[in-house]
Automatic annotation (TrEMBL), chain A:
Protein name in the entry: Ras-related protein RABA1f
Record's bilayer topology term: Lipid-anchor
InterPro entries per the UniProt record, alphabetical: P-loop_NTPase, Rab_GTPases_membrane_traffic, Small_GTP-bd, Small_GTPase
Any GO MF annotation of the entry: GTP binding
Predominant localisation class: membrane
Species the sequence originates in: Dendrobium catenatum
GO cellular component, one term: endomembrane system
Name of the encoding gene: RABA1F
UniProtKB/TrEMBL annotation, chain B:
Transmembrane segments: 102-124
Protein name, as recorded: Rab-GAP TBC domain-containing protein
Species this protein is from: Dendrobium catenatum
Superkingdom, taxonomy of origin: Eukaryota
This protein's UniProt keywords: Membrane, Transmembrane, Transmembrane helix
Length: 215, 610
């Protein structure tokens, strides 16, 4: 997948990364946007973001990915940035059961703050640490099915499934948006500043149509 | 002025990072002069720290092209040059001096030239027009040198004028790195500015004991927190092990929040889950994994707490921590945060312990060159210190990084016990790391950190009151200074200044190099110390730096930093996200003394309005 220039895109999607501290959110982001990984990556304070464009069905989709702090303390500021997100990767660490158990709470919080159409994927990271794994793939899949989300296991360190996970989420968002655009009869892009858009849960079509804009 | 016979340093810095030209001049005692010209394309390459005049122990006269002139201890030259080369300055400090990552060498050619030993030139050019010579408008101030520092004391070891000259010096120029460990305890309120040498010895011994007691409490918590079979206070456990330590220490000259006294109770909940878990949404408390979770019945009860707060909310804060009574009533009053109260939970000591370790082992290595003794720690000592705090997953680290991580854990845990209202919040390790680097002893580092956190702790409050207040002040400063720019921010719905969130929380630590950060903090601490000591505005009116000391210097610096980019933001950015990206990618692009100059200008014109 080629890395494309920043300003050349047809669609802009806001995606958030959430999950407990230390599950590897920042490294998944840097692996996807810069192909970098660091064991010394510092804790995220508040929110940070990076972008990368990919091609989906001959359209260029730019993903603006918001990386959030995992600690409870930062929840108020990070949740403010969920608004306007059309996709989310909810990440846990396959070597720490507690991060998996917390997924339901993360999902609840996400659903409280985002459009019901948002595409969500559960991501079990650090899959390279095979000898330390405590959360099985089956458990991950089962939860994803229960919660009606996508599922993927990744390793930011080994670069395993990282592009795949993001691409799948972006492609799905693209399909959702395209379907809605077809219905609405309008070209759709998604504003980066989602907070300004009031999304009505009852009227999904108009919600998406409202997001028409250029960035 | 340049003392005769002293070596002379000339730095000629042009262009971007890789194209810096450094000229070093020596003037030996026999008055024959040597001029060492350093150019990237000539002579042999050597790392910057091998240039004698940059690493030696002699005083080096320096002069900039703007006429500013001063004499600094040569060690400071590194820091000083770093801050003086504008846009590339930060990176230069980190790369050429700091790490080999960029493999920036400095080529030195020595040519004998008589008679122009005083010539010292700075030519600074950068991509950002706003970052010219840092002393373009104001004469560069000298650092607090070792000799000057010693002269400030009476024979009894008291600061002569209640610390006025000392603080004045630090606010305008920072501190010579070689005496930081001596000076910081004064700056951070560990020692009273009016204390005598004898009093300080007593305070130090007392504080050491208090720290050791806190560490013991941490160990108790680690070993007993999940046994929870009976109602047992930490103090009781403490007594069982070492009864003599339970006497409340009487600190002869304790700083204002030393009065913080509390007991942590561990209370068995009759086989039930701990009280924490009875909060509406308790998942965050269950971060411990595996079998531990099943046994977790401990509750930490904050008995009394008298930590300095900016309002009389200590009691409610205790309740928040416990997750009992009516939690978060302040949150519901704070408007936009109200909707989030349902998802908030309290964090417990176990959570803090886990996150502290997580952050400790991923601390970066930037500090290493600033503390050769800690950098050279043996593998054995490093592993011992790691075991002492039950550090895990550190096998990939160098001994010095293991040692640093273990120290981070020890001090941060002790702080979490000392100030349970704050506990541990990510970002605090960023603030502690430079202090550990300067202070070799954990107990000294701890009390300096306590002094630092006296103000900084508000950044980490669970209710976000502190951070929101500060963002509001940054916003007000910008509005008062530049209505047009503020209007642009309003248009982008960015007038709340959330884009500087990180700068506020970790006080520029992520944007500046180690040396730059420490310089900024020293100036900020000097302001805070002046206010604590009651040195009023009139006293500062006489001196050249007219800006009175303020508790909010950092916020003015942040506003200055944003205002330096006003043109870029107005012309090119059309959303808050873009401003945030700009603010989050300033690392290596800031000139700390230019920032302070601008901040002081803002203070002079605005401090009555803000």
């Amino acid at each position: 997948m080629a890395y494309m220039s920043d300003d050349d895109y047809d669609y802009l999607f806001k995606v958030v990364l959430i999950g407990d501290s230390g599950v590897g959110k920042s490294n998944l982001l840097s692996r996807f946007t810069k192909n970098e990984f660091s064991l010394e990556s510092k804790s995220t304070i508040g929110v940070e973001f990076a972008a990368r464009s990919i091609q989906v069905s001959e359209k260029i989709v730019k993903a603006q990915i918001w990386d959030t702090a995992g600690q409870e303390r930062y929840r108020a500021i990070t949740s403010a940035y969920y608004r306007g997100a059309v996709g989310a990767l909810v990440i846990y660490d396959v070597t720490r059961n507690a991060t998996f158990e917390n997924l339901e709470r993360w999902l609840k919080e996400l659903r409280d703050h985002t459009d019901s159409n948002a595409v969500i994927m559960l991501v079990g990271n650090k899959a390279d640490l095979r000898h330390l794994r405590v959360v099985s793939t089956e458990d991950g899949k089962a939860l994803a099915e229960r919660e009606n989300t996508f599922f993927m296991e990744t390793s930011a360190l080994e670069s395993m499934n990282v592009d795949h996970a993001f691409t799948e989420v972006l492609t799905e968002i693209f399909h959702v948006v395209s379907r809605k655009a077809l219905v609405a009869g309008d070209a759709v892009a998604v504003l980066p500043k989602g907070q300004t858009i009031s999304v009505s849960m009852e009227d999904e079509v108009s919600a998406l149509k409202k997001k028409v804009g250029c960035c | 002025m340049t003392p005769s016979g002293g070596p002379c340093l000339t730095l000629l810095v042009a262009g971007d990072r890789p194209r810096m030209h450094v000229v070093v001049s020596h003037r030996p005692a026999d008055r024959r002069s040597f001029d060492a010209k350093v150019k990237t394309n000539t002579a042999q390459c050597l790392p910057i720290d091998s240039i004698p005049s940059l690493t030696g122990d002699r005083r080096v006269p320096v002069r900039d092209c703007g006429g500013g002139e001063g004499c600094v201890e040569s060690m400071v030259v590194c820091g000083w040059s770093e801050r003086s080369i504008g846009c590339g300055g930060g990176s230069w400090g980190t790369t050429a001096v700091g790490s080999s990552r960029w493999h920036v060498g400095v080529a030195v050619a020595v040519t004998a030239m008589a008679g122009i030993a005083l010539a010292a030139t700075f030519v600074v050019s950068s991509r950002r027009g706003s970052l010219k010579s840092p002393w373009s408008r104001r004469k560069r101030k000298r650092v607090l040198s070792h000799r000057y520092w010693n002269c400030l004391f009476t024979p009894e070891g008291k600061l002569r004028d209640g610390g006025f000259k000392f603080l004045k010096k630090v606010r305008s120029g920072g501190i010579d790195p070689s005496i930081r460990s001596e000076v910081w305890p004064f700056l951070l309120g560990v020692y009273d500015l009016n204390s005598s040498a004898l009093e300080r010895i007593a305070v130090k011994a007392q504080k050491r004991k208090e720290y050791e007691n806190l560490r013991l409490r941490c160990c108790m918590l680690a070993n007993h927190s999940y046994q929870g079979n009976s109602l047992l206070t930490i103090d009781e456990i403490f007594n069982e092990v070492i009864p003599q330590c339970n006497e409340e220490p009487e600190s002869p000259r304790s700083c204002e929040d030393d009065t913080s006294r509390f007991s942590l109770f561990m209370e068995g909940c009759h086989g039930d889950r701990p009280l924490y878990d009875k909060t509406p949404d308790s998942a965050s408390c269950n971060l411990e994994e595996g079998d531990d979770e099943e046994d977790k019945t401990g509750i930490y009860h904050v008995d009394t707490l008298q930590v300095e707060t900016d309002s009389s909310d200590s009691e409610s804060s205790v309740e928040e921590l416990l997750g009992v009574a009516e939690p978060d009533h302040k949150l519901t009053n704070s408007g936009s945060l109200a909707h989030d109260t349902s998802i908030r939970t309290v964090e417990d000591f176990t959570t803090w312990q886990r996150i502290i370790r997580l952050d400790a082992i991923r601390a970066n290595a930037e500090w290493v060159i600033y503390s050769p003794s800690q950098a050279a720690v043996s593998e054995e000592v490093a592993n011992q210190s790691a075991e002492a705090v039950q550090l895990k997953d550190y096998s990939h680290l160098e001994p010095c990084m293991i040692y640093h991580a273990a120290r981070l854990v020890a001090v941060l845990e002790a702080y979490a016990v000392y100030d349970p209202e704050i506990g541990y919040c990510q970002g605090m390790s960023d603030l502690l790391s430079p202090i550990l680097t300067v202070m070799d002893e954990d107990h000294e580092a701890f009390w300096c950190f306590v002094g630092f956190m006296r103000k900084a702790r508000h950044n980490f409050r669970l209710d976000e009151v502190g951070i929101r207040r500060q963002l509001a002040i940054v916003s007000r400063i910008i509005r008062s200074k530049d209505a047009q720019f503020y209007g642009h921010l309003e248009k982008l719905q960015a007038e709340d200044c959330f884009f500087v969130y990180r700068m506020v929380v970790v006080l520029f630590r992520r944007e500046l190099t180690f040396e730059q950060t420490v310089c900024l903090w020293e100036v900020m601490w000097a302001d805070q110390a002046a206010i604590r000591a009651g040195i009023g505005r009139s006293a500062w009116g006489r001196i050249r730096l007219r800006a009175p000391p303020t508790d909010d210097l950092l916020l003015y610096a942040i506003a200055a930093c944003v205002l330096q980019r006003r043109k870029l933001i107005i012309e090119r950015y059309s959303s808050m996200d873009e401003i945030m990206r700009e603010c989050n990618s300033m690392a290596g692009q800031l000139d700390v003394w230019k920032l302070l100059d601008d901040a002081h200008d803002l203070i002079v014109t605005l401090h009555d309005k803000i």
